[in-house]
Each structure stands twice: as C-alpha cells, then as structure tokens.
Amino acid sequence: MSYNPNRKPINQSRVPNLEMNDKWIIQFLKQIQVGHFVTLDKNQPFINPTSFWYSSEHHEIYFHSNAYGRMRYNAEKESKASFECFKSGKLLPSNLALEMSFQYECVIAFGTIRIVTKMNEKKEILNGLLKKYFGDMKPNKDYRAITNEELKQTSVYRFKVKNWSGKRNWEEKAEQAENNEWPDLNPKWFDFY
User: Into which CATH architecture does domain 13-171+184-192 fall?
Assistant: First the structure.
C-alpha cells in the first residue's frame, strides 16, 4: 500500500468519510481560539501558535506577532505557509493497539502570507481579533482602543487561503476486536479515559 499526496489535491483527505464541508470549516474557525502557522526559513520550518480570525469576504485568516522576530523574518523571505487548528475530545481505548484513538476536529489550510503595512488596515484587522475574542467589550469604554504607537509595535498578517480541509473524527467508541480475536476490553477503561 502506498500513498502519494501529489496525485490529488493537497487538501484532499486520505479518509474521505471524515471530511467536512466549507460551511463546517468556517463555523469551526469562528469557535477555535488558537491556530498554528508554519513558515519556512530556507529548509527550517517554524511553527507559531497564535490567536486568529477568518474573513469569509476575503477568504483570509488574520493574525499578528511582535514587530520583530522569527515570524516576521520568515514572512518577509517566503510567502508560502500553512495553518492548522484543532479541538480534541476524549481518548478512545480499544483492545487492539491499532484502533486506540481520540476524538478530534481540525482544519488545515495552505496558502500565502503577506505582511500588512498600512496603518488603517492593521487597525481594522486587530479590531477584528478583538471582536472575535472580546466581542462583548467596547473600545474606549471597557478598554483603551489600539493606539498608533501600539500599531508600530505589531506585525499584522494576511494569510490568503488557497486550499483547506476540515476533518472530524468524533466517534464515541474505538473499534474493538471481533470474533474472539482478543478478549473484550475491561469496561473500566471506557470510564477511565
């Protein structure tokens, strides 16, 4: 058995029955709080956990970092990047090692990063982040709004999504041995995990 990811689109899942549609992906991106961006410096991958928000209008994911650092350096040198976010549930024990698993949902995206330099655009994107995470709080009432000085200390990025996929594996129980292949799993393990 061989698998060649280059024979089909990069975002196509190896397990089609776990694939989720665009509507599910968009809803998932609204709920998840932490995403991971991967950039490159020559041959060295770099992963960065961060807050983010997705714009359906532009099909872009926005995030920020310090004005200087590895993320900014890599984004200036190479625009290709990928993104991942996930949610995990309970562990799924089995009486077969191969079938032990866990519940998870995830989104993986491939695309390009661009550094946002216009101050009004940076402010708009950062306000979008604040709205996602602190939507019930009001600027200049509950907190001081973003200042121009703070904008200068922040790098803001647009991640243009070229391809993406969503996957959901949320079974209540892992597969178990059948036909007396192995003794049944002690029920205590289902409660333990």
Answer: Roll (2.30)
